Amino acid sequence: MTDEIKRSLTESEIRDLVETAVAHFDDPDPEDDFALSPACDAITTLQRNGDQSVFDVCSVLCRSANPRERSVGAAILGQLGYSLELLRDQRFGLLKEMLEREMSGGADPEMLTEICFAFGHLKDPRGISAVVPLARHPFSSVRFAVVYAFSAQDDPVAITWLIELSKDEDPHVRDWATFALGQEIEADNSEIRDALRARLTDVDVDTRLEAISGLARRKDKSVIDHIIAALEAGEVGAVIYGAVTDLADPIFCMHLMGTKQSGQELPKVVAESHYLRSAWQAAVLACGCDAT
């Protein structure tokens, strides 16, 4: 069911969608990047058409002895009705109850991950303290979900833990914690900038580029040399061009337009991508380069 218009689902429709989601929840992702798995399709339909009836079913799923059913319930709750306010207190209470039950029992890492992602989608500040005990969980998948739960919240506790997780041993966790610090919060202080600067030499390219982007967004010109080095190394992409646009310094023109001056063409990956070419053009315009 892929109707785009929100509507009330019948009891039988809800039941059928839940059965599909539970049955296929652990299926591998489709090879087609643009296709949804049966579970994702069913969960998306339940989320989009979320209302009291869907929430009532989630209440049963979240208290089930079946971990798949609990996972489906948590996944639906996080984006119920694609609204932050729809039954907000009830959703938060149910997720907190789930987390407490997991923590007092087997604490299944996959279940903890689903709950943290749901808290992240709900963006309720009360969820921050709830997931703090998981910030040093031995499973990187859980720590990554904790990063998501902290993201986009200008809360001192969340920011402190994002700084800590930006130093995580797992590059995927570091990358997303650095992205969250750099792009998803408005706060700007020496601790945040120091954390971003610490990642400028990270062995993980994505983490390094996110650190550059976060500092550029804060108009920190100390990152100019790092941007130039990335451009010279051929690390072209939307992140670097976005950083150039944020700083809008003419010093970048010789690197953005150097291909023209040397008679070379733009990197193929940029020339063939409308998205990347648009990002490059925005950078050129911001810096006042001669793009004619």
Features:
single chain; 292 residues; mainly alpha
SSE map:
Layout: H1 11-24, H2 38-48, H3 52-62, H4 67-78, H5 88-104, H6 109-122, H7 126-131, H8 140-150, H9 156-165, H10 171-183, H11 190-198, H12 205-217, H13 224-232, H14 238-247, H15 253-256, H16 258-261, H17 268-271, H18 274-287
Helix pairs in contact: 1-2, 1-4, 2-4, 3-4, 4-6, 5-6, 6-8, 8-10, 9-10, 10-12, 11-12, 12-14, 13-14, 14-18
Care to describe what's here?
The radius of gyration is 22 Å and the shape is globular. The protein is 64% helix and 0% strand. The chain has helices at 11-24, 38-48, 52-62, 67-78, 88-104, 109-122, 126-131, 140-150, 156-165, 171-183, 190-198, 205-217, 224-232, 238-247, 253-256, 258-261, 268-271, 274-287. The longest helix has 17 residues, at 88-104. With 292 residues, the chain is mainly α. The relative contact order is 0.06. It contains 18 helices and no strands. It starts with 10 loop residues before the first helix and ends in a 5-residue tail after the last helix.
- The gyration radius over C-alpha positions equals 22 Å
Mean pLDDT: 92
- Spell the H/E element sequence: HHHHHHHHHHHHHHHHHH
Strand content: under 5%
Count, helices: 18
Number of strands: 0
- The low-confidence parts are none
Largest sheet: none
Distance from first to last alpha carbon: 49 Å
Give me the secondary-structure category: mainly alpha
Query: What spatial form do the alpha-carbon principal axes imply?
Result: globular
The percentage helix is 55-70%
